[in-house]
Amino acid sequence: PEKAIDKAFDRIREIEDKMSINKEGTEVDEINAKAGEEFVKVSDDTFDVIKRGVFYSKASNGKFDISIGPIVKLWNIGTDYARVPSDNEIKEKLPLVDYKDIILDEDGKRVKLNKKGMVIDLGAIAKGYAADEVKKVLTDNGVKHALINLGGNVYALGSNVNG
After folding, report:
1. Quick check: 25 pLDDT over 80?
2. In 20-162, which residue ranges form alpha helices assigned H by DSSP?
């Protein structure tokens, strides 16, 4: 089981290194940096999560929207500068939030944000994806029972062997 757990943590790190908005050099960081300019080639993982994010954004009529990044960043959560932004600051950033401005090139696995200043934030969907991927790693390595908890995204694999 230790090797399976190590592989599971490696998979989490791999996903985080591609999709985190809080780390420089991730694929999502590159997409955001090139917003309004050009397509960015991404891994299958990142493309799949962004594609799902756009699907859920469309299905919810934008109530869930992975392009919410410009609004989220106003709060500076997790920094020494955390604060509540003004209504005017929020209104100023709202035109940058629209999943319809996320362009997907299925064949080339490329993503483009149409407007400069747009920011995709996969935080609401990437942890669930990571939990699904951890489940695959564990089951592929013979683990039959596990409780996967990724910061509030919980997945129960199998059953409680103690009843």
Report:
1. yes
2. 27-33, 44-59, 69-74, 87-93, 123-140
